[in-house]
Write a structure and sequence with these properties.
Elements (H helix, E strand, L loop, with lengths): L3 E3 L6 H18 L5 E7 L3 H8 L6 E9 L12 E4 L9 E9 L3 H12 L4 E9 L12 E5 L5 E2 L16 E5 L1
Parallel strand pairs: 2-3, 2-5, 5-6, 6-7
Antiparallel strand pairs: 1-9, 3-4, 8-9
Helix pairs in contact: 1-2
The structure holds inosinic acid and magnesium ion (MG).
Length: about 180
Amino acid sequence: MTNETIGTVLITEEQIREKAEEIGRQISEDYAGQEIILVGILRGAVPWMADVMKRITLDMTIDFMAVSSYGAATKSSGVVKINKDLETDIDGKHVIIVEDIVDSGVTLNYLEGYLKSRGAASVKLCSLLDKPEGRRVDIKADYVGFTVDDRFIVGYGLDYDQKFRNLPYITWLESE
Ligand code: IMP
Ligand code: MG
């Protein structure tokens, strides 16, 4: 792809903020009386995680992991590699993975297994977007912001070749 242009606004900043509030409230209810750790998947989850965590009223901590399965391409290679591991001991802790999008499900499926193998008491998944048509492994996020069509999405953390993460809304990539 040489010439990238973006589409019109698909999901506004306001809609995302409202959804983050709703999900933050839901997480606070679901885990009442428990301590949780949010594990954000770099780099796409950053803006969404910042929105959600501010709406959680429990004792909580955060950590990050970086994994790669996509290079500068729009299709998953199906291989997940850990580029940055946790710095926190999650043994016996309730973990919520925060992602930007679930597409094939390969990344989240792998991470769920990995975090359980590190001794997490429970692992749930919170994703800003869900693209069900892309699914290749059977996985379902517990907290989902919005469901999107099978297009390449950018903005609000999501990138194409590291660009467009800074857009304050969700849109898609149009190629020429
Ligand atoms: P999965 O393993 O196929 O579910 O892919 C998850 C990762 O692929 C996400 O964390 C994103 O970084 C990337 N990804 C999948 N679909 C899109 C998209 O439409 N736009 C941008 N990144 C995407
Ligand atoms: Mg990405």
